Amino acid sequence: MSASQSLTKDFFELIKGIGEAKSKQEEDRIILQEIVNLKRILAGPSSDRGRGHGNGGGSHSYKDDGFSHHSSPVHGRDAYGSNAHAHSSFGKATDRARDIFNSAKDAAQSATAAASAAASSNMVAGGPPPLSASKKRSREFLVRLMYVEMLGHDASFGYIKAVELAASSSILHKRTGYVTCGACLSPSHEFRFMLVNQLQRDLGSANVLEASVALLAVSRLITADMVPAVATEVSKLVHHGSDMVRKKSIFALHRLHCLDPNTVAGPDLVAHLRRMLCDRDPGVMGATLSIIESICCGTGVHSRTNKSRNPTTAALYPTATPFKDLVPSLVSILKQVCEHRLPSDYDYHRMPAPWIQMKIIRILGTLGRGDLRSSEGMYEILSDCMRRSDTGINVGYAVCYECVRTITTIYPNTVLLDAAADAISRFITSRNHNLKYIGVTGLAAIVKDHPKYAAQHQMSVIECLEDPDETLQRKTLDLLFRMTNPINVQFITDKLLQFLRTTSDEYLRRDLVTRITQIAERYAPSNSWYVQAVTALFDIAGDLVRPDVAHNLMTLIAEGSEDNEEGDEDAIRREAVEMFVDLLDRPAAPSKILMDTMAWVLGEYAYLAEESLDAIVIKISALAQKPGHAPSTKKYLVAAIMKLVAQAGTCPPVATHVIDDFTRSRDVDLQQRCLEFQGMLATANHLLAEVLPVDASCEDIEADAGLSFLDAYVQTALANGAASYSPPAEDDSDDDDSLGASVARKPKFNITPYAEPTKPQHQIKVDHGGLPASNGAPNGTHGGNRPAPGPEAANTLQLRNVANVWGKPAPATGGAMPIAPAPAPTPGAGYGNPPSQPYGNPPSQPYGNQPYGTAAPAPSAGAPREMTEKERMAAALFGGIPGSGAPPPPTKGAFATSRPARTKPAPRAAPPAANPEPTPPPAPAPPAPPAPAPLEKSMDLLDLGDFSPVPHTAAAPAPHDPFAAAPASAVPPPPPAPPLPAPAPAPPADPFAGAGLLGSSTDAPLGGLANAQPPANSLFQHAGAPLRPKTLSTPEFGQRWGSCPCTKMGGAAGSFRDLAQMMGVLETTGLHPVEAITATGEGILAGTVQDALVLLHGKMGEGGRVHFTVKGTQQGIVDGLVAFCTTRLQSS
Amino acid sequence: FFFFFFFHPNMIKGVIIVNNHGKPRLVKFYQHVSSAASSLAAASLAGSSAGTAASVSAGPVPGGGSAVPVRIAEGEAQQAVIRRIFQQVARRPDSFCNYLEGSVPEWGEGVKLIYRHYATLYFVFAVDAQESDLGILDLIQVFVEALDKCFENVCELDLIFHSDKVHHVLDEIVMGGMVLETNIMSILTAISEQNKLHNASLRGSGLGAGASSLGSATDSIRDKFGDYMR
């Protein structure tokens, strides 16, 4: 067949016009004209009769023969004018056709093409025959219709023609009709119902091709409502005599099952699949594998949008479990395929049925995940497959790569892992970019659990990173992210930042920002590095950074570097200030988040700068005068100006000007601040320094809860005969007992802590729903005066816990913790030396626990004097990876030791947003007692609207709001928390467990860890980060369920009466209940650990047993949660 | 035991053929493009005109109903996806690897584009992470070879003028987003039998003759392409 067979001239012209269209607008115009033409053709026969016939030499008269209800003839002619007039003769049209075909086809074909083109032109010349009379023209009409739709225009007027053609007796036309329906009809289109009858007829047809076409249409066109109408017919075809029909019928049946599991039951489908796996035709077997694979892997998600049906009647799907017993069968099939037992036409480039091999290998990977017994059955065939696939052709690599993927997911086997690593090294060192990509992807998969394999590929990874191919770079960055450890974090962060700077892809940028934030928070070697890295991040992509990162940064700077042995508290602040002063001099305005941070830091610590305060004030004022700042940024800037003016003692004219400007701001809060400042400047200059003290952001706000300053007033009033205040009757004295008699005389606010901090800090905080226990804030009593800790507070908690883990491991666990200065087993290894360690894992060092620094020699190990640039990069990158032979830079080693000695909680983990005390700036109150403990340090970074819903007056000379200030001075400070949360049982023994690098080898320490957690009502934690509820709707849950890569199942033999009880217990782990389906005894819950999503699906089984499945984005968390839930369910 | 999830079994999200100038030649979506994500995408797409057509039909997405406004949004989303895919693919030299990641958020995370460039055409498969990266590359090759056999030296115009036949070939390879058949012989057999039957029906010999000729059709195609893969 040739292209010109059924081609008519105006279609040809259309394509040409589209091809030559210079703009989208021009294209749209042509298509709109085409729509007019098509409508005319559709309505054509009745009107054209007797007009267009016989005028072979003229132009197509039917074109000009428009109907007023379609469009005006004039318009039609004008819009089409150039085309219509260009071809007054058909000879010319034929010439054109020949031209185009000559260019498109090789010369040998052009003669036939031209002849056919002429033939088709003649057909047109005879006037358009009625559409219904010519199937050929109907077909072309539909092709044109699809073309119009493909370009994004509506052609619904012609759909009826497609439905009509589906009933044609010719198989080709029938199929084209169905294809057009499938391509154009929207899921809710009523024409779909018109097709059901036809489909039923065709499904029952004796003709093999008609049945198989109908099956294709079923999978494309049937909606949930129509499933019962065709299900029986489709099920029958599963036993059809033709392989072509059988393989399509199982696909269609699977599709119907997804749409309506009640009509096509899961077990039935599984039974069919199992039977057809042994089909005599390899094609059917291959198709069956596709479905088994998609069921096993649960890839993708289908959330039912059809709201009219019960949304909870979700597809009942067998998990991988019902296929577990297939492992031996699959292995045997794979073996036969490998040994060329299939017909030779399944070979592809002499590789026996490569796609069938790949499918089986992938299914094995899913079935063998974390299952030693199943995995053991696969080891041999996998190794065999890999060996045989090494044929040096693309498809061979494809099979080989599938083996590598499976080897990394099933229960680990050292020999196979080594073989996989070998394959990866061949890929990654290949010159072929596709293989390089595969190599980097494979490496990322393998280093997740087995970091040692990264070491061999230092140079290759660096090369990939420098490759101009962005996909390869991105993949390599992904690999780097997974490889990050405290030693190489600087190098990797630099690389990521560098990439962030150059890319413009919005999604990639977002992704990079998240990753940089994560690794910087988790592995920062020093505070000053963190400040620099985060500032750089703000500078490059400030718009994409979460605000709490800025808050963390400010907190860090505010708390200074007290943990430093040098004791220079101001070092980090000075560094930050210098950095920000430099920024001020830059002509371009920095991003909002950077400007906010800069304004705050300079406002607080500008006195540390080399430059004079005055100069800085002037610069900030100049910046504030620029238009376009966000309201909150203005407040930051104004607050900075005020603080600096208070310190400098003088107010430069430009600052006065700015303040004056802002007194007319539309923002009332800003206006008030400025007016008050002006007032103070004019009348009470001496108070400025007191109101805006230097470096007091970490001080507690002291307020007189006894309201002693009112004493004089009260005395006067009493003396004047006023009745004295009598406290309410003590009918609730029982409650007061617990508070002790000393409190009885105090105001009736509940101003003591709710509980003594007998447990480790973070545990208590969790119990109190995010309110730090040491705070003593009587949240309820104060009602609206105090903002309840919001979601941000919860956020803080989580981060704080993370910080605790990496920041200061408890001494008790410190001994077991692998830190850099651990003795080096291979002191001789230099940079360039290959690792002398065997790759096999010695029993004393299971991968899971292998410390980063173990294999690295001591910093003093003799490094070669000269290194190439790449080697230096590689050394930076692979420091800390076992077997890399690259020693960690000495400074990092020092850092690693100093880290556990920190005496404060990692400050960046506590964003001020979480500070439950929205204290006004220090008031001239009695001097504050020293903050009892670092954790309780109340800090007011800048009390702006961002942080707190309560606006405060910056220049308030005395606390207007006694409630807000009440607790601190009225109550003796709560017993200081221990400076180190030493007895904390929760932090995992391995501070890097959360890194994802150690992940979950099957003997993962994480499971045991989770079991060891206090069984009480504590929330689930992973690497110190607590599980937080995640609010999702059921469809959202469904969507995410499919996209979560990690799965683990669990069960517990509790004695649960009903679903509610099970859900209740599961909620105590910190999960959010998404939905409980009583009818089926199923419930779904969701939560997050840091940013990692975990989803849980639980089902009541017989005798109060509970089965559940956890899915998530990180295997370590999933494993941990399964173990945790099992324990929790069993104990309740 | 059983558990439920909302299931979309397809691992191939869509197949798109687009020429060097960004004109689509074949568009087949196996999974909805979500309109929420696409509005985000549209916002970030500089200079992407939404088109003047008021109502645009939704993609051929099976399963689940959707209201009319959704249809319009989806039609536009689909166009946006095609434009985006072309922009991404076209700027990559042929020496680069044939993969693109994370560039079509409409299909969800983890979907990557695997493409091959043949003379004037890009063949783009959008697949999820489960699919084999290298395997799909060869599958595209099989697709193209099948087209080539069906059209006797396929060229770009064939794909337009006979887009229905291109759909037919693709349907024999990928069904509902899953790989149905990879054996080029089976694919070609199905197509050639269809043609024979069609011609038979045109000659007026009716269905019975067409059905009876199936066996010989299979034989002849095997003779014809028997040495194809060598």
In short:
Chain A: Residues 835-845, 908-933, 970-990 have a biased composition (Pro residues). The complex is a heterodimer of chains A (1132) and B (230). Chain A has 1132 residues and is mainly alpha-helical.
Please explain how this structure is put together.
The complex is a heterodimer of chains A (1132) and B (230). In chain A, a hairpin with a 4-residue loop joins strand 5 (1072-1077) and strand 6 (1082-1089). Chain A contains 48 helices and eight strands. Chain A is mainly alpha-helical and 1132 residues long. In chain B, the strands form two sheets. A five-stranded antiparallel β-sheet of chain B has the order 3-2-6-5-4, sandwiched between helices. In chain B, strand 7 and strand 8 (178-179) form a beta hairpin. The longest helix of chain B is centred in the middle third of the chain and has 23 residues, at 68-90. Chains A and B meet through helix 1, helix 2, helix 5, helix 7 and helix 9 of A and strand 1, strand 3, helix 2, strand 4 and helix 3 of B. Strand 1 of chain A pairs antiparallel with strand 1 of chain B, so a sheet runs across the interface.
Strands of the widest sheet of chain B, in order across it, are 3-2-6-5-4
- Architecture of one domain in chain B, CATH level 2? 2-Layer Sandwich
List unreliable stretches of 5+ residues of chain A. Answer: 1-6, 46-129, 299-318, 735-744, 759-865, 884-1015
Give the biggest beta sheet of chain A: 7 strands, antiparallel
Helix and strand succession of chain B?
A: EEEHHEEEHHHEEHHH
The number of distinct β-strands of chain A equals 8
Mind telling me the C-alpha Rg of chain B? 19 Å
- The Cα radius of gyration of chain A reads 37 Å
Average predicted confidence as pLDDT of chain B: 73
β-strand amount of chain A: under 5%
Oligomer: heterodimer
Shape of chain B: globular
Topology, pairings included?
The complex is a heterodimer of chains A (1132) and B (230).
Chain A: H1 9-20, H2 24-48, H3 61-64, H4 73-86, H5 90-104, H6 107-125, H7 135-150, H8 159-166, H9 171-184, H10 191-203, H11 208-221, H12 227-237, H13 243-259, H14 266-277, H15 282-297, E1 316-318, H16 327-338, H17 354-367, H18 372-389, H19 394-409, H20 414-428, H21 433-447, H22 458-465, H23 470-483, H24 489-502, H25 506-523, H26 527-541, H27 547-559, H28 571-584, H29 592-605, H30 613-625, H31 631-648, H32 653-662, H33 668-683, H34 688-691, H35 711-719, H36 733-737, H37 741-744, H38 761-767, H39 779-782, H40 791-807, H41 811-814, H42 869-878, H43 890-898, H44 962-970, H45 1005-1012, E2 1021-1022, E3 1025-1029, H46 1034-1043, E4 1046-1052, H47 1059-1067, E5 1072-1077, E6 1082-1089, E7 1092-1100, E8 1106-1112, H48 1115-1131
Antiparallel strand pairs in A: 2-3, 3-6, 4-8, 5-6, 6-7, 7-8
Chain B: E1 2-4, E2 12-19, E3 24-29, H1 35-44, H2 68-90, E4 99-101, E5 112-118, E6 121-127, H3 133-151, H4 156-161, H5 163-173, E7 174-175, E8 178-179, H6 184-202, H7 206-212, H8 214-225
Antiparallel strand pairs in B: 2-3, 2-6, 4-5, 5-6, 7-8
